[in-house]
């Protein structure tokens, strides 16, 4: 009953937030994106124990795919990137929304396929070898995108602007706010369900001792690939939304931004608590509030302040906020195994 009440309150808050805080619609929309990034990174880094820097690859692919399909469905993409795009070609409202939703679906499906293909090649690696390999993926993708003239090469490309004849910027911000909110809810609900199934138990078994899991007859590679495919799907869609909200896609600073978004998703999950459902949500929220505060009150020193926050996270919250709460208040925040969990564990054995 308490969980239902909590979920209801949070859902209502998300629905009415644009009207309660009209000046912060964009910042809250970014928060939903950050929560998605933290939750999906935790599939590998927390639930499975594979610390990856490669999810930024799917974020960037989704960003370019969504914008590229929006443009390419109706106009020559090469001419758009050469001529400045929105100055030469204008989408009608129908073209804009058709291209957007088709592009958003592709931004989820194509990165998921890419994750499945490369997963067979690199998910056999473990530990720091896997982390370094995934780090190289994001760097290489940014350099490759910077050399492709069709998508603007190093100068980047603009995403289609909001049609002027269907409303002002307020309507645009509300539209993207609710799309981001729905995607965040869908990601949370799906992962919450997935963690209660055999899939979630196997991921935890891989994290605890992959060799023993394989000795029990579990085909761990299959589950590792499925986990990465799930992450890539939601991360890719988040990238598609981010590209539209920002309005400009640059290969290394926006799309495949490993030093920022690539690191942020890891820090948010660690801050909230790896391997928990609510940890990434809490971590992303706290991190976003601190980050916005640094950019407001420490402009020019914001990265120094962010570095201090990273040190504080690693030193004082190695188990994250949820880990601290579970240790401090186990009766409220400790794990409870219900009947469904018990049956799933019996099935796994």
Shape: globular
Taking strands numbered 1, 2, ... along the chain, how are they ordered across the largest sheet?
1-2
Major beta sheet summary: 2 strands, antiparallel
Q: Could you tell me how far the N terminus lies from the C terminus, measured between alpha carbons in angstroms?
A: 31 Å
How are the secondary structure elements laid out?
Layout: H1 2-20, H2 25-48, H3 55-72, H4 77-83, H5 93-122, H6 127-145, E1 157-158, H7 169-194, H8 198-215, H9 220-246, E2 248-249, H10 251-255, H11 258-272, H12 279-297, H13 302-316, H14 320-328, H15 330-333, H16 339-348
Antiparallel strand pairs: 1-2
Question: Any descriptors?
Answer:
349 residues; mainly alpha; 76% helix
Q: Could you explain the architecture of this structure?
A:
The chain is globular, with a radius of gyration of 21 Å. The longest helix is centred in the N-terminal third of the chain and has 30 residues, at 93-122. The protein has a domain at 24-257. Helices cover 76% and strands 1% of the residues. The mean pLDDT is 87. Helix 2 (25-48) runs parallel beside helix 8. It is an all-alpha fold and 349 residues long.
């Amino acid at each position: 009953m308490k969980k239902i009440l909590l979920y209801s309150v949070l859902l209502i808050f998300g629905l009415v937030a644009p009207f309660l805080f009209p000046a912060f619609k964009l910042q809250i929309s970014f928060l939903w994106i950050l929560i998605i990034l933290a939750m999906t990174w935790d599939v590998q880094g927390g639930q499975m124990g594979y610390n990856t820097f490669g999810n930024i690859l799917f974020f960037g692919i989704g960003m370019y795919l969504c914008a590229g399909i929006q443009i390419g469905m109706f106009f020559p993409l090469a001419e758009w990137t050469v001529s400045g795009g929105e100055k030469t070609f204008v989408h009608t409202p129908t073209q804009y929304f058709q291209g957007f939703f088709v592009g958003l679906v592709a931004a989820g499906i194509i990165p998921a396929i890419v994750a499945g293909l490369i997963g067979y090649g690199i998910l056999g690696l473990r530990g720091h070898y896997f982390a370094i390999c995934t780090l190289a993926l994001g760097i290489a993708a940014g350099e490759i995108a910077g050399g492709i003239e069709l998508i603007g090469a190093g100068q980047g490309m603009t995403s289609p602007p909001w049609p002027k004849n269907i409303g002002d910027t307020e309507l645009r911000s509300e539209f993207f706010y609710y799309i981001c909110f729905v995607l965040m809810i869908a990601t949370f609900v799906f992962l919450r369900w997935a963690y209660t199934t055999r899939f979630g138990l196997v991921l935890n078994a891989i994290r605890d001792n992959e060799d023993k899991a394989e000795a029990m007859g579990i085909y761990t590679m299959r589950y590792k690939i499925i986990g990465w495919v799930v992450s890539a799907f939601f991360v890719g869609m988040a990238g598609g939304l981010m590209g539209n909200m920002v309005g400009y896609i640059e290969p290394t600073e926006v799309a495949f931004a490993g030093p920022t978004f690539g690191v942020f998703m890891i820090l948010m999950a660690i801050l909230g608590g790896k391997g928990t459902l609510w940890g990434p949500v809490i971590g992303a929220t706290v991190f976003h509030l601190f980050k916005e505060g640094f950019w407001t009150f420490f402009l020019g020193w914001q990265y120094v302040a962010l570095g201090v926050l990273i040190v504080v996270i690693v030193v004082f919250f190695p188990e994250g906020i949820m880990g601290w709460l579970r240790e401090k208040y186990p009766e409220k925040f400790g794990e409870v195994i219900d009947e469904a969990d018990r049956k799933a564990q019996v099935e796994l054995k």
